[in-house]
């Protein structure tokens, strides 16, 4: 019982850390990309970052059921593989949500704004669930 509670707490903590770092990294990436062409375009990147944070925060509560389901069906997978699969699945879900709810013309124009967030999320998962992370029990 205590072990399950600690595991759930660790999953929630890592999920919130993943959400924070991927949104910060993606927004920073867009901020640099937009500001290289014109310095005044930084506000566009910040607004995209705000929308990305809101959309991705609505998906965060799905993480615990996802890990529970993945652990029961694919018990041989490492947590890193499950997290990478989850990031990819939730990225696709978030993009479909944005296409449905936002006035965006095509998937290619959405990908130009959302790929930095996928890159930041993948890097964060590789850091959080890397080989060095197993030494530090949380």
UniProtKB/TrEMBL annotation:
Keywords, sorted A to Z: Membrane, Transmembrane, Transmembrane helix
TM annotation in the entry: 12-32, 44-70, 82-104, 110-129
Protein name, UniProt field: Uncharacterized protein
């Amino acid at each position: 019982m205590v072990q399950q509670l600690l595991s759930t707490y660790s999953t929630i903590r890592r999920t919130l850390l993943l959400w924070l770092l991927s949104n910060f990294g993606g927004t920073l990436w867009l901020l640099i990309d937009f500001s290289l062409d014109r310095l005044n375009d930084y506000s566009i990147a910040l607004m995209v970052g705000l929308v990305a944070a809101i959309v991705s925060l609505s998906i965060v509560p799905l993480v615990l059921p996802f890990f529970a389901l993945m652990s029961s069906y694919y018990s041989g997978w490492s947590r890193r593989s499950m997290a990478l699969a989850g990031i990819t699945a939730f990225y696709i879900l978030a993009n479909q949500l944005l296409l449905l709810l936002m006035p965006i013309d095509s998937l290619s124009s959405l990908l130009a704004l959302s790929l930095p967030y996928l890159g930041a999320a993948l890097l964060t998962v590789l850091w959080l669930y890397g080989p060095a992370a197993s030494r530090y029990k949380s």
